[in-house]
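Morning, I've got a small favour to ask if you have a moment. I've been staring at a protein lately and its backbone has me curious. You're getting the sequence in one-letter code plus the fold written as tokens. I've dropped the whole record in just underneath, so have a look:
=====
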Amino acid sequence: MEKCKDFLQRKNIIISAKRYGIDALGAMAQGLFASLLIGTILNTIGSQFEIPVLVAVGKYASAMSGPAMAIAIGYALQAPPLVLFTLAAVGQAANELGGAGGPLAVLFVAILAAEAGKAVSKETKVDILVTPIVTILVGCFFAWLLAPALGKLASSLGGVIMWATDLQPFLMGIVVSVVVGIALTLPISSAAICAALGLVGLAGGAAVAGCCAQMVGFAFLSFKENKWGGLVSQGIGTSMLQMGNIVKNPRIWIPAILTSAITGPLATCVFHLKMNGAPVSSGMGTCGLVGQIGVYTGWISDIAAGSKTAVTAFDWIGLILISFVLPAILTPLFGACLRRIGWIREGDLKLS
């Protein structure tokens, strides 16, 4: 047992929830962002302004989502170069075999392949052959063994959530908005979760609402302490910056959570806000305005498919209110009440 521990330590193989559930998951979201999401945005711009080269580039970028996610995961696991580069093939296999739930399959398979590759790396004199062969064989074997089942599991779970949201838009609007919003602020990746579950439609719209409530909400709630720099870094960056303060005083989280519980059902029941763009956009909120761009690309796709006639003024009003206006108003209002009773004190929201 001691020898095994020494070997794992020497190979930098750390079996922990943080390494796999936070580091790898967060990296996967970045890989997905850098391929599928950027590709979708470029494709949409190219289609709207009739720029064929952007359409082509967008398609190429989107097609590389599997390799990009796997390489990003390998990077987070600190895989050596030969393992890291070989993960491109593993990611492609897992994403393709995983179908609609490809991102979840890539997460599991890439972790297994990367750790196997790290285990044999530089253990032989023919490392340049052994390491990539082991990484690819292990990765493709688990892709064949696990990816279809993981893909179906993720797709089914996402389908249940979307079905439930369509059936009970008020209740599920609250649940999805609050849960995904909380995930966005926690040191895990809400974007990766939404991508893995394929969360689109009304459920995707509720997820967007929850993320915006956290990001824009914290940005305005803490404006007194953090001024314009904090407004920008949280409003179009990430509310995760407040995690340290939340640990110190969890009550500062209440205003943003209450806001998400309001904007979620408003998104589903009143504005019928749907995310029919890339599922990863559902968990991005206002980060780089990716959530809003995703909703817009969904509108365009729906128009092209004939399920939507045009983008209306009501669509735009709903998107702007849910994404920016309501979080900027409601969260500070709830915060003022908590400040008055002493639950939030001066400096509690200050970013270091």
Remarks:
- The chain has 15 helices and no strands.
- Residues 65 and 295 are 20 Å apart (CA to CA).
- The mean pLDDT is 91.
